[in-house]
Design brief:
Blueprint lengths: L5 E7 L3 E11 L6 E10 L6 H10 L18 H20 L15
Antiparallel strand pairs: 1-2, 2-3
Length: 111
């Protein structure tokens, strides 16, 4: 199923009216179709729908939304820590004589 996603306006308490980008994906854990959303920006900043679509394109929000492992660009702390560990192991393990044990895992990252 190929999709483009869609935009809606929504009232928010803090920011007033905002553009929301929506798309469907299949949740890997149970195979259900679920709707995902991300805030594009304030309506005051993007007064026309075409302006909001330009922002969606600029941020590449609608690229690869049909891929099962698509992410919106929001990185969790756990993903960042794992990425650091992978880079640290790849870049410094042989030079420093490290045992190969992840540095952050036992300290702050819970599996």
């Amino acid at each position: 199923m190929s999709q483009r996603g869609w935009l809606t306006k929504q009232k928010r308490k803090k920011d007033g009216r905002v553009w929301i980008f929506h798309w469907y994906r299949v949740r890997p854990s149970d195979g259900k179709h679920v709707e995902n959303t991300v805030v594009v920006g304030r309506v005051a900043s993007f007064p026309k729908e075409s302006n909001a679509w330009e922002e969606v394109e600029r941020r590449s929000l609608n690229h690869n939304i049909n891929e099962p492992d698509f992410q919106t660009g929001c990185v969790t702390f756990g993903e960042l820590a794992r990425s650091y560990d992978e880079c640290r192991l790849a870049c410094f393990s042989s030079a420093m004589g490290n045992s190969g044990e992840p540095f952050l895992q036992p300290r702050i990252v819970q599996p």
